[in-house]
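Run log, item B.
One chain of 508 residues. Sequence copied directly from the ordering sheet:
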Amino acid sequence: MPSVLASVSTFALEGVRSHRVTVEVDVRRGLPAFTLVGLPDRAVRESRERVRAAVQNSRLDFPMKRLTVNLAPAHVRKAGPGFDLAIAVGLLAASGQVPCESLVSTAVSGELSLSGELRGVRGTLAAAMGAREAGCERMLVAHENASEAALVEGLRVIGAGDLHEIAVLLRGEGEPEQASDAGAPAEDRAGELDLRDVRGQDDAKRALEIAAAGGHNLLMVGPPGVGKTMLARRLPGILPAPGLDEALEITQMHSAAGLGSGALMRERPFRAPHHTISAQGLVGGGGLPRPGEVTLAHRGVLFLDELAEFSRMALDALRQPLEEGRVHIMRGQRALEFPANPVLVAACNRCPCGRGSERCRCSQADRDRYLRRLSLPLLDRLDLVCEVRAVPPLELAGAGPQGPSSAAVRKRVMAARRRQTKRLEGTTALCNGDMDGRLTRRRVSVDGDAVARLIAARESANLSGRGHDRVLRVARTIADLGGRARVHARDVEEALTYRLDGWEQLAA
């Protein structure tokens, strides 16, 4: 009797994206054996026992023959339990329990319990995107992943509860119900954190507005308890809501890390890792590379409180992502790329004790040792540096809200972003902070007085080439907030007040 061969398409998560894996199942006469090849890891090898029990407990026949399952391409390592459903469906097709024709243009993904129940897996959105790109017309997943996969347009997604239900659907005996996306707006939490709650700090609020309008990185320096964390946590409330493409991108990052809820994320992420985090946890990596905090904050806010307490290795690992907006990871023979383009907001004290100049008892050696933890190449990539001072007691004790609300500031930020979108049309940049040096020189129009002020600053403040471009981008954002088509000298002047040479004065 000739062997029967069936093939099923599934998709393996690789970083935050997916690649196609064809599960080939060969069933032939011989002593009962179940062989799994194609560089499977331990979790994939253990799927033999899960699949065997799931098939038998789903009122289906497990073929007591010689079974060979190949996961192609064979040179790529396979990891995780997401191949369970594809292997089980392939066995059912190869043993004649479901028609092989029903698997044409169909992708499957899911983990199986011993009872045959379907469990969700991380990275379903990336798998659905890969299925659409591969030309698949439908995708079978667990119920808990169905709404997430349905976010991908042009792909028919069917959610199922167990393996028996999958077999019924593939036989054409039931009418499958197509899943719909859970794309309703998430609960609005921006009103809970309003800029009006922060007393005083007008300079810091202005820096926060510029950072939000242009996507610029910001460092706040000041003693403990003056409002640095309060300000940082209110930044998402003044950022414009992400568009559909950005929301899908954000959802994909969190789904790949196993943090997604299944719904489209319509709020920008805010990530605040502890200062004990490792370089790998911050930028991503590992034996099975997973996104780090800088990727999970993509298109949102990454807040690093007590910046000088982070390890030097972790901070230096941020240098390349801050410059390029992505993380490159090499593992074995694979090169992975993680998007990493958040607004970085950092906060730190001027000295180890953080008591301020009046009560500080730190020696100069202590201060130097503390500041050496912040490498100049990293600080050179921060567009805005703002000193946050203690608020006078009388102002702190005042009643009622103070200053503009987050809604009012967000309105100005959105107007500035619209000007940037129009100016940057046809490029990959979404805001001024995304521009590289070449794009900055091509798209930023500067008047003569502003050029003269930049030249003078370059000579007197010893600005680096990178610093010059970043000052120009910040000045362009300030002009956008003011509704000006060209960058004027006053815009450059304000941008220079937030430049890194102010850090040296603070550290003196």
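Observations after the first pass:
- The chain has a mean pLDDT of 88.
- The chain is about 40% helix and 15% strand.
Flagged for discussion on Thursday.
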